[in-house]
Amino acid sequence: MTAHADRPTGQWRTRAAVLALATVLALSGTAHAWATDLLQAWQAAQTHDPELATARQNLRAGQARADQADSLWRPTLDAQASVGRATQESQTRGAHFSAPALGAMDGANFDTSIRNGSRSEYGVQLRQPLIDLGRDAQAQQLRHAARQAEAAWTIAEQQAALRIARRYFDVLTGMRRLETLQSQQRAIQRLLAQAQARYQAGDASILDTHEAQARLGQIDTLVDLATTRLELARSAFTQASGLPAKGLVPLQEDAPTITARPDQPLAAWLDRVAKASPELRQALEAAAMASERAEGLRAIAQPTLSLVGAAGRTYQSGTGQYGDAGYAATQWSVGLELRIPLYTGGMRDARYREALAERDGARFQIASTQQGLNLRTQAAWLSLETGPGRIQALRQALQAGMSRRDATRLGVETGERTLLDQLDAEQALAQSEFDLYQAMADLVIDRLELQALAGSLDQQAMATANCALSGAHCPATKHQ
Protein backbone atom coordinates (compact mmCIF):
# COMPACT_ATOMS: atom_id res chain seq x y z
CA MET A 1 0.00 0.00 0.00
CA THR A 2 2.80 2.37 0.86
CA ALA A 3 4.73 1.49 -2.28
CA HIS A 4 1.71 2.20 -4.40
CA ALA A 5 1.17 5.49 -2.61
CA ASP A 6 4.80 6.58 -3.18
CA ARG A 7 4.74 5.83 -6.93
CA PRO A 8 2.65 8.90 -7.91
CA THR A 9 4.81 11.04 -5.65
CA GLY A 10 7.97 9.80 -7.41
CA GLN A 11 6.44 10.47 -10.81
CA TRP A 12 5.49 13.98 -9.69
CA ARG A 13 9.04 14.63 -8.53
CA THR A 14 10.39 13.42 -11.86
CA ARG A 15 8.02 15.68 -13.75
CA ALA A 16 8.90 18.57 -11.47
CA ALA A 17 12.59 18.03 -12.14
CA VAL A 18 12.00 17.93 -15.90
CA LEU A 19 9.89 21.08 -15.67
CA ALA A 20 12.56 22.84 -13.63
CA LEU A 21 15.22 21.86 -16.17
CA ALA A 22 13.04 23.11 -19.02
CA THR A 23 12.46 26.38 -17.17
CA VAL A 24 16.20 26.88 -16.68
CA LEU A 25 16.83 26.21 -20.36
CA ALA A 26 14.04 28.54 -21.36
CA LEU A 27 15.35 31.29 -19.14
CA SER A 28 18.86 30.87 -20.48
CA GLY A 29 17.48 30.98 -24.01
CA THR A 30 15.48 34.07 -23.16
CA ALA A 31 18.56 35.76 -21.72
CA HIS A 32 20.41 35.04 -24.96
CA ALA A 33 17.48 36.32 -26.98
CA TRP A 34 17.50 39.54 -25.01
CA ALA A 35 21.21 40.13 -25.73
CA THR A 36 21.48 43.24 -27.93
CA ASP A 37 24.11 43.66 -30.61
CA LEU A 38 25.05 46.78 -32.56
CA LEU A 39 22.83 46.03 -35.54
CA GLN A 40 19.77 45.51 -33.35
CA ALA A 41 20.53 48.74 -31.51
CA TRP A 42 20.71 50.64 -34.80
CA GLN A 43 17.46 49.16 -36.04
CA ALA A 44 15.76 50.20 -32.81
CA ALA A 45 17.27 53.70 -32.96
CA GLN A 46 15.81 54.30 -36.42
CA THR A 47 12.34 54.46 -34.90
CA HIS A 48 13.22 55.76 -31.43
CA ASP A 49 16.02 58.34 -31.74
CA PRO A 50 14.35 61.77 -31.29
CA GLU A 51 17.08 63.56 -33.25
CA LEU A 52 16.55 61.25 -36.21
CA ALA A 53 12.78 61.71 -35.96
CA THR A 54 13.27 65.48 -36.07
CA ALA A 55 15.48 65.15 -39.15
CA ARG A 56 12.85 62.97 -40.83
CA GLN A 57 10.24 65.70 -40.42
CA ASN A 58 12.70 68.28 -41.75
CA LEU A 59 13.13 66.08 -44.82
CA ARG A 60 9.38 66.05 -45.40
CA ALA A 61 9.31 69.82 -45.08
CA GLY A 62 12.15 70.06 -47.60
CA GLN A 63 10.38 67.79 -50.08
CA ALA A 64 7.39 70.12 -49.94
CA ARG A 65 9.63 72.96 -51.18
CA ALA A 66 10.08 71.18 -54.50
CA ASP A 67 6.30 71.18 -54.93
CA GLN A 68 6.27 74.88 -54.08
CA ALA A 69 8.80 75.52 -56.84
CA ASP A 70 6.61 73.78 -59.41
CA SER A 71 3.53 75.71 -58.28
CA LEU A 72 5.16 79.10 -58.89
CA TRP A 73 4.73 78.76 -62.66
CA ARG A 74 1.19 77.38 -62.57
CA PRO A 75 -1.79 79.69 -63.09
CA THR A 76 -3.64 81.03 -60.09
CA LEU A 77 -7.42 81.32 -60.00
CA ASP A 78 -9.19 83.51 -57.45
CA ALA A 79 -12.90 83.83 -56.76
CA GLN A 80 -14.44 86.69 -54.82
CA ALA A 81 -17.96 87.59 -53.69
CA SER A 82 -19.43 90.24 -51.46
CA VAL A 83 -22.84 91.34 -50.20
CA GLY A 84 -23.82 94.37 -48.18
CA ARG A 85 -25.53 97.73 -48.04
CA ALA A 86 -24.44 100.64 -50.20
CA THR A 87 -25.42 104.10 -51.37
CA GLN A 88 -24.80 105.30 -54.89
CA GLU A 89 -25.48 108.84 -56.11
CA SER A 90 -24.51 109.93 -59.62
CA GLN A 91 -25.06 113.15 -61.57
CA THR A 92 -24.25 113.68 -65.22
CA ARG A 93 -24.50 117.17 -66.78
CA GLY A 94 -24.25 118.29 -70.39
CA ALA A 95 -24.46 114.80 -71.86
CA HIS A 96 -25.37 114.05 -75.45
CA PHE A 97 -28.41 111.84 -75.61
CA SER A 98 -29.84 109.95 -78.53
CA ALA A 99 -32.43 107.21 -78.85
CA PRO A 100 -34.56 105.70 -81.67
CA ALA A 101 -37.79 107.59 -82.22
CA LEU A 102 -36.64 110.26 -79.77
CA GLY A 103 -33.97 111.88 -81.77
CA ALA A 104 -30.86 113.49 -80.33
CA MET A 105 -30.39 115.99 -77.54
CA ASP A 106 -27.42 117.94 -76.28
CA GLY A 107 -26.99 119.20 -72.76
CA ALA A 108 -28.96 116.31 -71.23
CA ASN A 109 -28.78 115.61 -67.51
CA PHE A 110 -28.89 112.15 -65.92
CA ASP A 111 -29.31 111.62 -62.19
CA THR A 112 -29.49 108.33 -60.31
CA SER A 113 -29.99 107.69 -56.63
CA ILE A 114 -29.90 104.55 -54.49
CA ARG A 115 -29.66 105.10 -50.78
CA ASN A 116 -28.85 102.32 -48.35
CA GLY A 117 -29.65 99.70 -50.95
CA SER A 118 -28.50 96.14 -51.25
CA ARG A 119 -25.33 95.42 -53.23
CA SER A 120 -23.86 92.10 -54.37
CA GLU A 121 -20.73 91.43 -56.37
CA TYR A 122 -18.94 88.31 -57.50
CA GLY A 123 -16.25 87.35 -59.99
CA VAL A 124 -13.21 85.23 -60.83
CA GLN A 125 -9.70 86.16 -61.91
CA LEU A 126 -7.03 84.02 -63.54
CA ARG A 127 -3.35 84.99 -63.68
CA GLN A 128 -0.63 83.09 -65.52
CA PRO A 129 2.95 84.39 -65.20
CA LEU A 130 4.79 84.44 -68.52
CA ILE A 131 8.03 86.33 -67.90
CA ASP A 132 9.26 86.82 -64.33
CA LEU A 133 12.96 86.50 -63.57
CA GLY A 134 12.38 86.92 -59.84
CA ARG A 135 9.84 84.11 -59.80
CA ASP A 136 12.24 81.87 -61.69
CA ALA A 137 15.02 82.60 -59.17
CA GLN A 138 12.63 81.86 -56.32
CA ALA A 139 11.68 78.52 -57.90
CA GLN A 140 15.34 77.57 -58.27
CA GLN A 141 15.99 78.59 -54.69
CA LEU A 142 13.19 76.30 -53.49
CA ARG A 143 14.55 73.37 -55.52
CA HIS A 144 18.00 73.86 -54.01
CA ALA A 145 16.37 73.99 -50.57
CA ALA A 146 14.70 70.64 -51.27
CA ARG A 147 18.03 69.08 -52.29
CA GLN A 148 19.68 70.62 -49.25
CA ALA A 149 17.05 68.97 -47.06
CA GLU A 150 17.84 65.61 -48.67
CA ALA A 151 21.55 66.11 -47.94
CA ALA A 152 20.73 67.13 -44.36
CA TRP A 153 18.69 63.95 -43.94
CA THR A 154 21.60 61.83 -45.17
CA ILE A 155 23.88 63.58 -42.69
CA ALA A 156 21.38 63.05 -39.88
CA GLU A 157 21.03 59.38 -40.73
CA GLN A 158 24.80 58.90 -40.83
CA GLN A 159 25.25 60.79 -37.56
CA ALA A 160 22.49 58.76 -35.91
CA ALA A 161 24.29 55.55 -36.86
CA LEU A 162 27.56 56.93 -35.51
CA ARG A 163 25.81 58.16 -32.37
CA ILE A 164 24.28 54.80 -31.53
CA ALA A 165 27.60 53.06 -32.26
CA ARG A 166 29.51 55.46 -30.00
CA ARG A 167 26.97 55.07 -27.22
CA TYR A 168 27.02 51.30 -27.63
CA PHE A 169 30.80 51.17 -27.26
CA ASP A 170 30.73 53.82 -24.54
CA VAL A 171 28.73 51.31 -22.50
CA LEU A 172 31.13 48.47 -23.33
CA THR A 173 34.26 50.49 -22.54
CA GLY A 174 32.59 51.90 -19.43
CA MET A 175 31.90 48.37 -18.22
CA ARG A 176 35.48 47.34 -18.97
CA ARG A 177 36.85 50.42 -17.21
CA LEU A 178 34.76 49.67 -14.12
CA GLU A 179 35.77 45.99 -14.16
CA THR A 180 39.42 46.98 -14.46
CA LEU A 181 39.21 49.43 -11.56
CA GLN A 182 37.32 46.97 -9.41
CA SER A 183 40.00 44.36 -10.14
CA GLN A 184 42.65 46.85 -9.04
CA GLN A 185 40.57 47.63 -5.99
CA ARG A 186 40.46 43.97 -4.97
CA ALA A 187 44.20 43.57 -5.64
CA ILE A 188 45.03 46.60 -3.48
CA GLN A 189 42.78 45.34 -0.71
CA ARG A 190 44.66 42.04 -0.73
CA LEU A 191 48.00 43.85 -0.69
CA LEU A 192 46.81 46.06 2.15
CA ALA A 193 45.83 42.98 4.16
CA GLN A 194 49.22 41.42 3.44
CA ALA A 195 51.03 44.62 4.42
CA GLN A 196 49.13 44.83 7.70
CA ALA A 197 49.83 41.17 8.46
CA ARG A 198 53.54 41.55 7.71
CA TYR A 199 53.71 44.70 9.83
CA GLN A 200 52.07 42.95 12.74
CA ALA A 201 54.51 40.07 12.30
CA GLY A 202 57.44 42.51 12.26
CA ASP A 203 58.47 41.65 8.67
CA ALA A 204 57.63 45.08 7.15
CA SER A 205 57.40 48.73 8.09
CA ILE A 206 54.24 50.71 8.58
CA LEU A 207 55.12 52.61 5.39
CA ASP A 208 53.82 49.77 3.19
CA THR A 209 50.49 49.89 5.01
CA HIS A 210 50.20 53.64 4.56
CA GLU A 211 51.04 53.41 0.85
CA ALA A 212 48.47 50.67 0.31
CA GLN A 213 45.81 52.63 2.20
CA ALA A 214 46.53 55.78 0.14
CA ARG A 215 46.38 53.84 -3.10
CA LEU A 216 43.11 52.18 -2.01
CA GLY A 217 41.56 55.59 -1.33
CA GLN A 218 42.50 56.73 -4.83
CA ILE A 219 41.10 53.63 -6.47
CA ASP A 220 37.86 53.88 -4.47
CA THR A 221 37.34 57.37 -5.89
CA LEU A 222 38.02 56.16 -9.42
CA VAL A 223 35.57 53.28 -8.99
CA ASP A 224 32.83 55.70 -7.93
CA LEU A 225 33.59 57.96 -10.89
CA ALA A 226 33.58 55.03 -13.33
CA THR A 227 30.26 53.83 -11.92
CA THR A 228 28.71 57.24 -12.48
CA ARG A 229 30.06 57.46 -16.05
CA LEU A 230 28.76 54.00 -16.84
CA GLU A 231 25.27 54.89 -15.65
CA LEU A 232 25.33 58.01 -17.81
CA ALA A 233 26.51 56.00 -20.81
CA ARG A 234 23.71 53.49 -20.29
CA SER A 235 21.14 56.26 -20.03
CA ALA A 236 22.40 57.85 -23.25
CA PHE A 237 22.19 54.50 -25.06
CA THR A 238 18.66 53.86 -23.83
CA GLN A 239 17.51 57.33 -24.84
CA ALA A 240 18.76 56.81 -28.39
CA SER A 241 17.62 53.22 -28.89
CA GLY A 242 14.81 52.62 -26.41
CA LEU A 243 16.55 49.38 -25.40
CA PRO A 244 17.99 48.46 -22.00
CA ALA A 245 21.72 49.06 -21.82
CA LYS A 246 22.40 45.79 -20.01
CA GLY A 247 23.13 42.57 -21.84
CA LEU A 248 24.97 44.21 -24.74
CA VAL A 249 27.02 41.79 -26.83
CA PRO A 250 30.69 42.40 -25.90
CA LEU A 251 33.59 43.14 -28.21
CA GLN A 252 35.35 40.17 -29.77
CA GLU A 253 38.96 41.09 -29.16
CA ASP A 254 40.37 38.81 -31.87
CA ALA A 255 37.84 39.75 -34.58
CA PRO A 256 39.63 40.21 -37.92
CA THR A 257 37.34 43.09 -38.87
CA ILE A 258 38.81 45.24 -36.12
CA THR A 259 42.33 45.29 -37.49
CA ALA A 260 41.44 45.17 -41.21
CA ARG A 261 43.14 47.94 -43.17
CA PRO A 262 41.19 50.24 -45.54
CA ASP A 263 40.33 48.60 -48.85
CA GLN A 264 41.48 51.66 -50.87
CA PRO A 265 44.42 54.07 -50.65
CA LEU A 266 44.01 57.48 -49.06
CA ALA A 267 43.82 59.30 -52.39
CA ALA A 268 40.91 57.12 -53.49
CA TRP A 269 39.05 57.78 -50.25
CA LEU A 270 39.63 61.53 -50.53
CA ASP A 271 38.22 61.47 -54.05
CA ARG A 272 35.29 59.36 -52.89
CA VAL A 273 34.47 61.77 -50.09
CA ALA A 274 34.79 64.78 -52.42
CA LYS A 275 32.22 63.24 -54.79
CA ALA A 276 29.75 61.69 -52.35
CA SER A 277 29.99 63.58 -49.05
CA PRO A 278 26.53 64.72 -47.91
CA GLU A 279 28.13 67.52 -45.90
CA LEU A 280 29.79 68.95 -49.02
CA ARG A 281 26.56 68.52 -50.98
CA GLN A 282 24.70 70.43 -48.30
CA ALA A 283 27.25 73.26 -48.45
CA LEU A 284 26.98 73.39 -52.26
CA GLU A 285 23.20 73.59 -52.13
CA ALA A 286 23.38 76.33 -49.50
CA ALA A 287 25.69 78.35 -51.77
CA ALA A 288 23.36 77.80 -54.72
CA MET A 289 20.41 78.98 -52.63
CA ALA A 290 22.28 82.14 -51.65
CA SER A 291 23.16 82.81 -55.28
CA GLU A 292 19.56 82.36 -56.43
CA ARG A 293 18.35 84.65 -53.67
CA ALA A 294 20.70 87.36 -54.93
CA GLU A 295 19.44 86.81 -58.47
CA GLY A 296 15.86 87.07 -57.29
CA LEU A 297 16.51 90.39 -55.58
CA ARG A 298 18.29 91.71 -58.64
CA ALA A 299 15.29 90.71 -60.75
CA ILE A 300 12.92 92.83 -58.67
CA ALA A 301 13.78 95.77 -60.92
CA GLN A 302 13.07 93.75 -64.08
CA PRO A 303 9.73 93.91 -65.95
CA THR A 304 7.22 91.08 -65.55
CA LEU A 305 4.60 89.91 -68.00
CA SER A 306 1.47 87.96 -67.08
CA LEU A 307 -1.64 86.73 -68.79
CA VAL A 308 -4.67 88.01 -66.86
CA GLY A 309 -8.33 87.12 -67.30
CA ALA A 310 -11.29 88.24 -65.22
CA ALA A 311 -15.07 87.99 -65.25
CA GLY A 312 -17.64 89.31 -62.80
CA ARG A 313 -21.02 90.86 -62.14
CA THR A 314 -22.19 93.68 -59.88
CA TYR A 315 -25.82 94.33 -58.89
CA GLN A 316 -27.29 97.06 -56.69
CA SER A 317 -30.92 97.93 -55.99
CA GLY A 318 -32.88 100.13 -53.63
CA THR A 319 -34.82 103.37 -53.28
CA GLY A 320 -33.40 106.83 -53.70
CA GLN A 321 -34.34 110.38 -54.42
CA TYR A 322 -36.11 109.44 -57.62
CA GLY A 323 -37.87 106.29 -56.42
CA ASP A 324 -36.94 102.68 -56.96
CA ALA A 325 -33.71 102.15 -58.87
CA GLY A 326 -31.38 99.34 -59.85
CA TYR A 327 -27.93 98.96 -61.29
CA ALA A 328 -26.38 95.86 -62.87
CA ALA A 329 -23.06 95.41 -64.66
CA THR A 330 -21.38 92.35 -66.15
CA GLN A 331 -17.79 92.47 -67.33
CA TRP A 332 -15.03 90.19 -68.53
CA SER A 333 -11.53 90.79 -69.81
CA VAL A 334 -8.51 88.86 -71.12
CA GLY A 335 -5.18 90.45 -71.78
CA LEU A 336 -1.49 90.87 -71.00
CA GLU A 337 -0.29 92.77 -67.97
CA LEU A 338 3.15 94.39 -67.99
CA ARG A 339 4.66 95.67 -64.78
CA ILE A 340 7.82 97.78 -64.64
CA PRO A 341 9.12 98.65 -61.14
CA LEU A 342 10.32 102.25 -61.01
CA TYR A 343 11.35 102.90 -57.42
CA THR A 344 11.45 100.72 -54.29
CA GLY A 345 12.74 103.25 -51.78
CA GLY A 346 16.24 101.72 -51.65
CA MET A 347 15.11 98.51 -49.99
CA ARG A 348 15.93 96.34 -53.01
CA ASP A 349 19.52 97.62 -53.25
CA ALA A 350 20.16 97.08 -49.54
CA ARG A 351 18.73 93.55 -49.62
CA TYR A 352 20.69 92.80 -52.79
CA ARG A 353 23.97 93.82 -51.12
CA GLU A 354 23.08 91.64 -48.16
CA ALA A 355 22.37 88.67 -50.46
CA LEU A 356 25.69 89.14 -52.27
CA ALA A 357 27.58 89.04 -48.99
CA GLU A 358 25.70 85.88 -47.95
CA ARG A 359 26.46 84.32 -51.34
CA ASP A 360 30.20 84.98 -50.99
CA GLY A 361 30.17 83.68 -47.43
CA ALA A 362 28.47 80.48 -48.58
CA ARG A 363 31.14 79.99 -51.22
CA PHE A 364 33.88 80.35 -48.62
CA GLN A 365 31.98 77.83 -46.47
CA ILE A 366 32.34 75.29 -49.28
CA ALA A 367 36.12 75.59 -49.10
CA SER A 368 36.05 75.34 -45.32
CA THR A 369 33.87 72.22 -45.50
CA GLN A 370 36.21 70.63 -48.04
CA GLN A 371 39.23 71.26 -45.82
CA GLY A 372 37.50 69.83 -42.78
CA LEU A 373 36.40 66.73 -44.69
CA ASN A 374 39.91 66.15 -45.98
CA LEU A 375 41.39 66.35 -42.48
CA ARG A 376 38.76 64.06 -40.98
CA THR A 377 39.15 61.57 -43.81
CA GLN A 378 42.92 61.50 -43.38
CA ALA A 379 42.58 61.06 -39.62
CA ALA A 380 40.13 58.16 -39.92
CA TRP A 381 42.06 56.49 -42.75
CA LEU A 382 45.43 56.79 -41.00
CA SER A 383 43.92 55.44 -37.79
CA LEU A 384 42.73 52.34 -39.66
CA GLU A 385 45.98 52.01 -41.60
CA THR A 386 48.11 52.11 -38.44
CA GLY A 387 45.55 50.20 -36.39
CA PRO A 388 47.07 46.71 -36.77
CA GLY A 389 50.48 47.96 -35.67
CA ARG A 390 48.98 49.86 -32.76
CA ILE A 391 47.02 46.83 -31.59
CA GLN A 392 50.09 44.64 -31.88
CA ALA A 393 52.12 47.10 -29.83
CA LEU A 394 49.46 47.24 -27.15
CA ARG A 395 49.32 43.46 -26.99
CA GLN A 396 53.07 43.33 -26.57
CA ALA A 397 52.81 45.96 -23.86
CA LEU A 398 50.18 43.80 -22.17
CA GLN A 399 52.48 40.77 -22.25
CA ALA A 400 55.33 42.87 -20.89
CA GLY A 401 53.04 44.14 -18.14
CA MET A 402 52.15 40.60 -17.13
CA SER A 403 55.83 39.68 -16.94
CA ARG A 404 56.59 42.78 -14.92
CA ARG A 405 53.76 42.02 -12.50
CA ASP A 406 54.89 38.43 -11.99
CA ALA A 407 58.51 39.52 -11.52
CA THR A 408 57.47 42.23 -9.10
CA ARG A 409 55.40 39.82 -7.04
CA LEU A 410 58.38 37.50 -6.77
CA GLY A 411 60.64 40.44 -5.90
CA VAL A 412 58.33 41.50 -3.07
CA GLU A 413 58.37 37.98 -1.67
CA THR A 414 62.19 37.90 -1.74
CA GLY A 415 62.51 41.43 -0.40
CA GLU A 416 64.08 42.86 -3.58
CA ARG A 417 61.01 44.97 -4.48
CA THR A 418 58.73 47.12 -2.37
CA LEU A 419 54.99 46.98 -2.02
CA LEU A 420 54.79 50.27 -3.92
CA ASP A 421 56.53 48.59 -6.88
CA GLN A 422 53.91 45.88 -6.86
CA LEU A 423 51.10 48.41 -6.71
CA ASP A 424 52.56 50.24 -9.71
CA ALA A 425 52.95 46.99 -11.64
CA GLU A 426 49.35 45.93 -10.95
CA GLN A 427 48.04 49.34 -11.98
CA ALA A 428 50.14 49.46 -15.17
CA LEU A 429 48.91 46.01 -16.20
CA ALA A 430 45.27 46.95 -15.65
CA GLN A 431 45.77 50.14 -17.65
CA SER A 432 47.35 48.16 -20.50
CA GLU A 433 44.37 45.83 -20.63
CA PHE A 434 41.95 48.74 -20.80
CA ASP A 435 44.04 50.62 -23.38
CA LEU A 436 43.95 47.61 -25.68
CA TYR A 437 40.18 47.27 -25.34
CA GLN A 438 39.66 51.02 -25.89
CA ALA A 439 41.87 51.00 -28.99
CA MET A 440 39.85 48.15 -30.52
CA ALA A 441 36.58 49.97 -29.89
CA ASP A 442 38.04 53.16 -31.39
CA LEU A 443 38.99 51.32 -34.57
CA VAL A 444 35.41 50.14 -35.06
CA ILE A 445 34.19 53.72 -34.67
CA ASP A 446 36.90 55.06 -37.00
CA ARG A 447 35.79 52.64 -39.70
CA LEU A 448 32.21 53.82 -39.37
CA GLU A 449 33.37 57.45 -39.32
CA LEU A 450 35.26 56.97 -42.60
CA GLN A 451 32.18 55.50 -44.26
CA ALA A 452 29.97 58.28 -42.91
CA LEU A 453 32.24 60.90 -44.46
CA ALA A 454 31.58 59.32 -47.86
CA GLY A 455 27.85 58.95 -47.19
CA SER A 456 28.04 55.15 -47.26
CA LEU A 457 27.25 54.35 -43.63
CA ASP A 458 24.19 52.23 -44.35
CA GLN A 459 22.61 49.06 -42.98
CA GLN A 460 25.25 46.91 -44.67
CA ALA A 461 28.07 48.89 -43.08
CA MET A 462 26.49 48.54 -39.65
CA ALA A 463 26.10 44.80 -40.21
CA THR A 464 29.79 44.58 -41.08
CA ALA A 465 30.72 46.51 -37.92
CA ASN A 466 28.58 44.04 -36.02
CA CYS A 467 31.14 41.37 -36.90
CA ALA A 468 33.43 42.85 -34.24
CA LEU A 469 31.13 41.59 -31.50
CA SER A 470 31.32 38.16 -29.88
CA GLY A 471 28.76 35.77 -31.27
CA ALA A 472 27.00 38.45 -33.32
CA HIS A 473 25.66 37.66 -36.77
CA CYS A 474 28.36 38.47 -39.32
CA PRO A 475 27.40 38.68 -43.00
CA ALA A 476 29.88 37.71 -45.66
CA THR A 477 30.81 41.19 -46.81
CA LYS A 478 33.93 42.96 -47.93
CA HIS A 479 35.38 44.91 -45.02
CA GLN A 480 36.21 48.50 -45.73
Which structural traits does this protein have?
480 residues; alpha+beta; Outer membrane efflux proteins (OEP); 10 helices; disordered N terminus
Report on this model:
- There is one protein chain.
- The protein is an alpha+beta fold.
- The protein has a single domain (35-86, 134-468), classed as Outer membrane efflux proteins (OEP) (Up-down Bundle).
- It is built from ten helices and four strands; from the N terminus they run αααββααααββααα.
- Strands 1-2-3-4 form a four-stranded antiparallel β-sheet, with no helix packed on it.
- Strand 1 and strand 2 form a beta hairpin.
- The protein is elongated and about 145 Å long.
- The model is unreliable at 1-34 (pLDDT under 50).
Per-chain topology:
Layout: H1 2-33, H2 38-48, H3 50-71, E1 76-99, E2 103-131, H4 133-201, H5 206-241, H6 266-276, H7 278-298, E3 304-320, E4 323-339, H8 347-414, H9 419-453, H10 459-465
Antiparallel strand pairs: 1-2, 2-3, 3-4
Helix pairs in contact: 2-4, 3-4, 4-5, 4-7, 4-9, 6-8, 7-8, 8-9
What's a concise summary of this model?
With 480 residues, this protein is of the alpha+beta class. The chain has one domain: Up-down Bundle (Outer membrane efflux proteins (OEP)), CATH 1.20.1600.10. Helix content is 65%, strand content 18%.
Helix content: 55-70%
Kindly report the CATH topology.
Answer: Outer membrane efflux proteins (OEP)
Low-confidence segments, given as residue ranges, are 1-34
Radius of gyration: 41 Å
Named at the architecture level, the CATH assignment is Up-down Bundle
Strand content: 15-25%
Count of folded domains: 1
